[in-house]
Specification:
heterotrimer, A mainly alpha (about 290), B mainly alpha (about 280), C alpha/beta (about 425), B: mainly alpha, about 0% strand, C: about 425 residues, alpha/beta, 6-stranded mixed β-sheet, 5-stranded mixed β-sheet, globular
């Protein structure tokens, strides 16, 4: 039975349509609508929404909180992405290495993934609480000075970063673990026969083979650096003075606390722009790597 | 930190010892929050900050948590939600992935780019607009509203397409020769071969949606639709201060199922990722 | 034969009356937040059930919506989504926002002139400050509070202070605080003198400083703020100095959640928090404690806090009448007493305090009277149009001064400028 080309693409479109409908309704259409909304003012019960051109964007540029939040998100990404990837690689290597108690290790590393962030945020809140919090109890044993981790602008963001890294590293570990287990042991043996040391093996052979995984994991890490804001709701609420606020959290605040939906749309446009740029960049990278197999 | 040489020269390998030590330290550090949760859940609230070894155990916290909020209902909501999402994802993404993998048609790369965009431009970001959309459909405060934005998953389509593309064309042609329709081939050939991918993807998706917070927070208003994460956050918030013992009891109750499932199926979990060839 | 007909007729008429009655049953739902632990949610549900039992023509469903901000978000999203509740208990400070969003109506149109006099005018005036504007009543006080000072009598005695006397003014608070602050050998503080939570929403407790200093933060029309008034600056400098200069309070922003725990653990000898915590402290404090009004400066002062009942616009007139009736019932002295005893919120009417239940409770537990007595000096909680944004601007300014990022004057000047910009369209 020969398929005419026409037959093919009707079929293909039919197959695609359910998914595409939902995709467009909940991803592409809202994205476009958000851009459009950003050019209007927020409708209040007693006032209609009016076209105001670039006004929202001028407000954005002048908004100190926005710039602060953007910088925060940048540092959040800069710290969480590499650290969680490196840690997850270490974890995968350790677990793969058949160290003693590897089942326990694997479980321990993966546990944060199955615990909802909003739930563990309260636990971390306890850890960070000055005075009787766990961290303070421990540092009390060493007679270091008391630190108000969440209450001081210098450390608030980093407290949140630590929680995020804790949450994600175990999840990425699974991907690396899977990838490591597909590296044929013969490679390792061959390398050591030729006198290659452990570092050399890792650097020149194992790591490049893990490249696709690393790219995949880093895509996820980038997404998470924008998405993982749950703990902020419970722990610092973005404070003090927006020191630990992130873009998505600020968007939530503006949209659902201030009810300024137009400005929230404007902020979302910025986020979309950043993410799309990153998406395109990583897509090209990923595509090359994936296709070369 | 690197795979061990197969030739062990000394009986005590310092390097290995260091690695084991490091791994264990990290593991204990990683487990600390869970350990703390277990500690406070089973001890009365006076012991939230005091870690004396033989303090009295109690189940009161669990009882209190259970009574103070309808966790059974939240649990049911979450199960319905997650099952619904994953089932819908499997269905939609399979069809779409099949189309991308095995058909040629105009607009294929453009549409695939649109799909890939969703990998980064997630519904989580478009909360404001999606909220308006749900409102216009009259779906605010329904479980469906929580799940709908996620069921067409770029990640799922991408994964399944990759997997389908590795299926040898001969199998496809053989089935067609036997008179299978397109869908028949999909059902007979592709889906069975992609089982590991489905498993891996399903596990990732379950984990993600079980833990999702911000979108369900916005879209749900009542007990009948709230998932566990939102229920927990509401439960934990009071002016009279945080009662860690009760909150952690609630946390354990709500994360318990996932945690136990993972403990039991650890190996399969990892294996499925390997076989899915997610690289 | 006649009795038989009579019986049939009466059964028939009763049945039809019942049918008519249920056909006219009014359905109401209301969102309520629970910001204090304890049996608050169960108490509301019980009160609601009592009312429904006594009023067969009405069905009321009380829906627990979470914290104040959750309930606010829920009610507004429901209203914007076209399915609003008929009433809700929401923050008193949200009045202007709710008016601006055009989702509530004033109670005046649904009460007779007598009721206006006896019911609406029977609430404590300080609670009505956040409930009325433009000559109309938009909110009816229900779960209201003021912040109070709790002190650890045992710690006071240990520090050589009279355990029954709380600091009466700012200077005394510093003086007592210094005696109460204990350090260990390495110089780390093991017990702070005072704890005023400032993370998240510092403005509320801050009003417990700005009001005694003699300043009012916003006008009653909700369109003008007074953030950089010299007295406000003075209050902020005092707050910052508690940590920075006098060393009697932990530096940095202090979390609300752990505050009661910190008090119980002896990590702080005095704490400022809502009177709504009374029941919690009474149950859990392992020592004798006292409750006092906030220390005075030029005068005594405190903000009010808590939630009002609001009547939503998008409902039928029957529903509105039934809703108003319900609110009148639940704020009447007997019910107000039940609610106050269960939670620690201040019963919002003087006549509630005259009921036997509350009199007995107050005799048994005098600290319950402190918040009520402070009402004489209480002022409106900070509330304006665009309340979320304006309040957050103020919160940010306070946080930056507490963190030492800006001086009090700088921070407040900036906040005032931003607030002016936000509120200009409303003048």
């Amino acid at each position: 039975m020969r398929n005419s080309a026409r037959h093919q693409w009707i079929y293909a479109w039919l197959l695609l349509s359910p998914a595409m409908i939902f995709l467009i309704t909940f991803t592409h259409y809202p994205a476009v609508q958000t851009v459009i909304s950003s050019f209007f003012s927020t409708a209040r019960g007693r006032r209609e929404s009016v076209f105001i051109g670039w006004d929202n964007y001028t407000t954005l540029m002048a908004d100190e909180v926005f710039w602060k939040v953007l910088v925060n998100n940048f540092w959040y990404a800069v710290w969480t992405i590499p650290l969680s990837i490196i840690l997850s690689l270490a974890m995968a290597l350790w677990v793969n290495d058949k160290l003693r108690g590897r089942g326990f290790l694997r479980m321990a590393y993966f546990t944060p993934t199955v615990l909802p962030l909003i739930a563990v945020a309260n636990i971390w809140l306890f850890f960070y609480t000055p005075g009787f919090g766990l961290i303070d109890q421990i540092r009390g044993l060493f007679a270091y000075p008391e630190q108000n981790w969440m209450g001081s602008p210098d450390t608030a963001l980093y407290s949140m970063i630590a929680v995020a890294i804790w949450k994600e590293a175990g999840f990425f570990m699974i991907f690396y673990l899977a990838a490591l287990q597909t590296i044929p042991p013969s490679l390792r043996e061959a390398a050591s026969i030729e006198g290659a040391g452990k570092f050399y093996y890792f650097r020149r052979i194992a790591f490049p083979l893990l490249m696709p995984t690393t790219l995949f994991v880093s895509v996820n890490a980038v997404i998470n650096s924008f998405r993982l804001v749950d703990h902020i709701f419970v722990m610092t609420e973005g404070g003090p003075n927006n020191a630990s606020s992130l873009l998505l959290f600020y968007i939530y605040e503006v949209a659902f606390d201030y009810w300024d939906t137009a400005y929230a749309a404007t902020l979302t446009v910025v986020m979309l722009a950043i993410l799309t740029t990153v998406a395109i960049g990583q897509f090209f990278f990923l595509d090359k790597k994936v296709h070369y197999k | 930190m690197t795979p061990q040489s197969t030739f062990r020269r000394k009986s005590f390998d310092f390097d290995r010892f260091l690695n084991t030590f490091g791994a264990w330290c990290l593991a204990l550090l990683w487990l600390l929050p869970l350990l703390y949760a277990v500690w406070t859940a089973f001890h009365p609230s006076e012991y939230e900050t005091r870690f004396s070894l033989f303090s009295p155990l109690t189940l009161q916290n669990f009882i209190q948590a259970w009574n103070e909020a309808p966790f059974a209902r939240y649990f049911l909501n979450t199960v319905i939600l997650v099952t619904g999402i994953v089932a819908a994802q499997f269905f939609l993404c399979t069809l779409a992935a099949y189309a991308f993998a095995r058909f040629t048609f105009p607009g294929r790369s453009f549409l695939f780019t649109l799909v890939l965009l969703q990998l980064l431009v997630m519904p989580d970001i478009l909360i404001v607009q999606n909220y308006q959309t749900m409102r216009s459909f009259g779906l605010i405060d329904t479980i469906a509203a929580i799940g709908l934005p996620y069921i067409a998953s770029g990640f799922g389509i991408f994964l399944l397409r990759q997997t389908f593309m590795t299926v040898p064309k001969e199998l496809d042609e053989a089935a067609r020769v036997e008179g299978c329709s397109f869908l028949g081939v999909l059902w007979r050939v592709y889906i069975p071969l992609a089982k590991p991918t489905y498993l891996a993807y399903g596990l990732v998706s379950v984990s993600h949606h079980w833990n999702n917070f911000v979108w369900p927070l916005i879209v749900t208003n009542s007990v009948e639709t709230r998932p566990l994460t939102v229920g927990l956050s509401i439960f934990a918030v009071t002016d009279s201060g945080i009662q860690w013992s009760v909150i952690n009891a609630a946390t354990l109750m709500t994360s318990g199922p996932l945690l136990i499932a993972f403990l039991l199926f650890q190996r399969q979990f990892v294996q499925s990722f390997i076989r899915a060839g997610i690289k | 034969m006649f009795p038989k007909i009579f019986k049939i007729a009466s059964v028939a008429s009763l049945t039809s009356l019942a049918a008519v009655g249920s056909a006219f049953a009014v359905d109401l739902e209301f969102y309520f937040p629970v910001a204090v632990g304890g049996a608050a949610a169960t108490t509301i549900e019980k009160l609601t059930a009592d009312y429904v039992a006594a009023n067969p023509g009405v069905n009321i469903e009380a829906i627990y919506a979470g914290s104040y901000s959750d309930a606010g978000v829920k009610a507004l999203t429901a209203a914007r989504g076209g399915k609003p509740p008929q009433l809700s208990v929401l923050l008193s400070t949200q009045m202007f926002t709710l008016i601006d969003e055009d989702v509530i109506v004033p109670f005046d149109d649904f009460v007779s002139a007598d009721e206006q006099e006896s019911w609406i005018n029977g609430f404590y005036p300080s609670f009505m400050e956040n409930s009325q504007t433009g000559g109309k009543t938009y909110g009816i006080p229900f779960q209201r509070s003021t912040p109070v000072l709790y002190w650890n009598k045992k710690a006071f005695a240990e520090a050589g202070l009279d355990p029954d006397v709380a600091p009466a003014n700012w200077d005394e608070m510093v003086e007592f605080g210094k005696k109460l602050t204990k350090k260990d050998d390495s110089g780390n503080v093991t017990q702070w003198g005072v704890r005023i939570p400032s993370a998240g929403f510092p403005y509320w407790l801050f009003q417990g400083l700005s009001t005694p200093a003699g300043a009012i933060l916003a006008n009653s029309d909700g369109n003008k703020t007074n953030f950089n008034d010299p007295k406000v600056v003075e209050a902020l400098e005092y707050l910052v100095d508690l940590s920075a200069k006098h060393g009697v309070m932990q530096p940095g922003s202090i979390e609300w959640g752990p505050t009661p725990k910190a008090f119980f653990e002896g990590e702080t000898a005095m704490m400022w928090t809502t009177t709504g915590n009374l029941v919690n402290v009474r149950t859990n404090a392992p020592f004798d404690f006292g409750v006092a009004m906030l220390p005075a400066k030029e005068r005594r002062g405190a903000p009010t806090g808590g939630g009002n009942f609001y009547l939503f616009k998008d409902s039928t007139d029957e529903q509105k009448d039934a809703a108003v009736d319900f609110v009148q019932w639940i704020t009447s002295p007997e019910q107000a007493a039940v609610w106050s005893i269960a939670t620690g919120y201040v019963a919002p009417r003087p006549d509630a305090w005259e009921t036997d239940a509350l009199k007995a409770y107050a005799a048994d537990f005098p600290p319950a009277l402190v918040a009520r007595d402070q009402l004489e000096f209480a002022v409106a909680e900070l509330s304006t149009y665009e309340n979320g944004k304006v309040t957050q601007t103020f919160n940010d300014a306070l946080a930056s001064a507490i963190a030492g990022e800006k001086t009090a004057q700088e921070a407040l000047d900036q906040a005032q400028a931003t607030a002016d910009r936000i509120l200009k369209p409303y003048r």
